[in-house]
Amino acid sequence: MFVHLQGPYSFLFGRLTLASIPYDNAIIQFAFGFAAIAAILVVAPVLYYRKIPYLFREWLTTVDHKKIGVMYIILGLVMMFRGFFDGLMIRTQQVMADGPHSAGHLEAAHGYLPPAHFDQIYSSHGTIMIIFAATPILTGLGNIIVPLQIGARDMAFPTLNAISLWLTTVGAALVMASLFIGDFSTAGWVGLIPLTELDFSPSSGVDYWMWAIQISSVGTTLNAINVIATIVAMRAPGMRWTRLPIFTWTTLSTSIIGLTAFPILGVALALLGADRYLGTHFYTAGLGGNLMLYTNLFWIWGHPEVYFLVLPAFGIISEVIPAFSEKPLFGYVTMVAATFAIAGISWVVWLHHFFTMGAGPLVNSFFSVATMVVGIPTGVKVFNWLFTLYRGRLTFATPMLWAVGALFLLLIGGLTGMMLAIPAVNYTVHNSVFVIAHFHCMVLLIVYAAFAAVSFWWPKVFGFKLDETTGKLFFWSFSIGTILLFTAMFGLGFMGETRRLDYLYNTQWFPALVIEEIGVGFYSLSVLIFFAMLFVSIRDRVKNAASADPWGTSRTLEWLTHSPVPFYNFAVTPHVNSRDELSWRYLNNLAATAPEHFEEIHMPNNTPVPLIIGALAFGFGFGLTWRIWWMTGFSLLGIIAVVIYRSFARDKGYHLSAEVMTQLEREPPLGVIAESQYLSKHPLTGAGAH
Amino acid sequence: MTLGTIGADEKVVLWQYGEVAHDMISTKTLGFWLYMLSDALVFAGLFAAYGVLDHSMNAANGPTEAQIVHPIAAFWQTLAVLTSVFAYSVATVAVKHGYRQLVVLCVLAAILLGMVFLGLEFSDFADLYAHGATPQVSGFLSAYFILIATHGLHMAFGILWLLVMAIQVSRLGLTAPVVAQLLNLRLFWQFQAAIWVCVYVFVYLKGVI
Ligand code: HEM
Ligand SMILES: [Cu+2]
């Protein structure tokens, strides 16, 4: 049934042999050394302070939406760090490999990376940044903020939430494993067909890419279900649809996109998997396969996916700008309408990624116009933000800097997108680095919004503000990097540099390449400043301790509860009276009114089930990649068994009595870092599990 | 509107005391509907692929649709899956009246009919294999087999779930979580029947026209 493969095969290890491990490659050795040092730096303190039980009890088995969100964001940042190194390596290769006289180092004829290695790096850069950096960070933010904004105690399905996290982590882990065991795909993050077919990519690289995305996208789909159900069913009393904060609206629209788009990616990759494992002919060049079937399916997901990423970023901007303009958001209703208009249109524009397929004037015109139509609701949003800023009392705190920076990127990215949407223009710049510059403006907009969100909501989650001085320094060095790198890249696009080149034949590009490299230098600097910012902020955490509303001008419900948010979110569920509830309470001098008494509340128990499912999913993906069938089968059966077991052993959660709640509310709040083992802390009053 | 001030005699509620009721069964049902939506999109993608590859050009000199589909034989499969759904529907009526034994009995009947369906499908596949019409022959046959086998996998998964529910009903009784699952399973099972009807129309019937 399975395709017969060349090369050694054993029952125990599948295709995996010692030769699959690139221990003799200097760059991999360096990467391994780096990863090992980083791992030691993390693991050693954990061991030294004997924090493994704490980690297991409080984090790895948690079902708390805030902790899950924090872990999502940590995962995203770690992967972004890896993706940053990939980007640095791509840029450095290109600046070193320009022109026939450029020197070659290590095993490369030009630059320092041989083509096959370079190809893996740009493939992993794109895959990581989109699927394993931006997506987890935004998912994590949604996880943390949405239940707080709607006054819920947790997500609708807390265990499922943890399962989603671990599935995403498994995908990231597979990508990381490919660095040291075997190789990664060389076919780009989009999986250029038929290069991904077995005939052309016989190694495990494409399999890693495919299963990493496949497994994590199951996690994303499940998370989308969870978010939609939470927003529909778990809102606090009084939180009508017309009062829903914009970030929650955008997360809702994004989840609808996620829920409907990711299954299509699943199909696109599953059919590729059938080709690679069963020898079918969906996308093969011969025997009745159809290459453009893959390309269409991929972009039917791919385009909605970019809006899946950008809409929550729009939501973040819509929260940050009013808070630092001291004005309500301009045009709430049009903002919601624009959000859903963008989400809807995102479904009918996918073909603009391959106008050059040559589908004919009618088809191309349709998709061209449809693509440009997106500009209308996007324009509505931009003007709404501008009118919010207009005559506002502006404070340029770090989150505001990131949010305003994002607006500039949106402008440039959006306008260049409009250019690309014209088929006549597209034919000349398609597959050039002009496209790369366009979408990096867009994707960086998301990164800017993500950093705005992290600095904005950090005090809510951890109870102290991030350091402003280093935060601003971080913003400026990052922004200088952005400007240098992508201005030069737009130029190179017009000068005809095509994308994904490991060797550049035109020496006239050299000055621009140098500017790009300087830009990357600023990015590298900003990474260091980022770590400095974390260090300084944590050192000064007592001095920077945050009140419930540390910015003083926040508007929405999440700022009503303590900072750091206690594990139960709100001791008593708030009753919502207005769209900007906190502002409304400020206005009516009610913001300081705490509940008069407390009542018993109900909380879900932690469970190791999601972690176990994650571990088995890793076995599943790894087994499939190396065709270790016993491992694949065992993991799959294991997952089914765990799910069935779980459906019998129902968790009823536990209760916190009114007395415990009173006591907890009197003491400093137990945030995500604290041990929320309330029962061991309050052995007498804890009503306990039942 | 957005930020009104409160009138002097207005009474405002700031905190909601008492258990804020979130109906567990309806939240789970909502979640499962959403899951089914994503599953529907999986089939939408597969049908799209089938539509693209169902072309004489994609048959690559191998058998074409008209040569391999047998609408009459597949009609028996259609009957099996629809009666299985009917049996399950009787089970849900029994849930309403609290007849535990009858629920188990009907679920077992649904399992049996589902297995009949899978058996027929298996023999159909075996027949095609015997005639050398395998998924590896052409793009068209790849699409044909994967579309139908994906549905078949869903059926097999549904049978496993039915089995688990039969055990849960007899061991745990008709508790709220069990009923919530039974309702979701009803949705799943009827959905698979609906997909099969689409397969029957777009693959088997269309194939002979
Ligand atoms: C006004 C909105 C936008 C328009 C009109 C637009 C238009 C386009 C067009 C026509 C292309 C295809 C270029 C080519 O390959 O020849 C493209 C590529 C791309 N766009 Fe956009 N876009 C818009 C917004 C966005 C957003 C919001 C994102 C991401 C968040 C984004 C990310 C991308 C990516 C990743 C690619 C290239 C993918 C690849 O080939 O690797 N775009 N855009
Ligand atoms: Cu697009």
Summarize the structure.
The complex is a heterodimer of chains A (about 700) and B (about 210). Chain A has helices at about 25-50, 50-60, 65-95, 115-150, 160-180, 205-235, 245-280, 290-325, 330-345, 360-375, 375-390, 400-420, 425-430, 435-460, 470-495, 510-540, 580-585, 610-625, 630-650, 660-665, 680, and strands spanning about 600-605, 655, 690.
Structural class of chain B: mainly alpha
State the helical fraction of chain A. 55-70%
Bound molecules: protoporphyrin IX containing FE, copper (II) ion
Structural class of chain A: mainly alpha
Q: Oligomeric state of the chains? A: heterodimer
Number of strand elements of chain B: 0
Give unreliable regions of chain A as ranges.
682-690
Main sheet attributes: strand count, strand direction, barrel closure of chain A: 3 strands, antiparallel
Overall mean pLDDT of chain B stands at: 93
Largest contact between protein chains? A-B, 65 and 55 residues
Count of separate structural domains of chain B: 1
Rg of chain A over CA atoms, rounded to whole Å, is: 25 Å
Calculate the mean pLDDT score of chain A and round it.
93
The main sheet of chain A orders its strands as 1-2-3
Order of helices and strands of chain B: HHHHHH
Work out the strand percent of chain B: under 5%
What share of residues are in beta strands of chain A? under 5%
Distance between the termini of chain B: 61 Å
> Could you say what the CATH architecture of chain B is?
Up-down Bundle
Helix segment count of chain B?
Answer: 6
Number of strands of chain A: 3
Task: Write a structural description.
The complex is a heterodimer of chains A (690) and B (209). In chain A, 63% of the residues lie in helices and 1% in strands. By secondary structure, chain A is an all-alpha fold. A three-stranded antiparallel β-sheet of chain A has the order 1-2-3. The longest helix of chain A has 35 residues, at 115-149. The two termini of chain A are 50 Å apart. Residues 682-690 of chain A have low confidence and may be disordered. Chain B is an all-alpha fold and 209 residues long. The site of protoporphyrin IX containing FE has 23 residues of chain A, from helix 8, helix 11, helix 12 and helix 14.
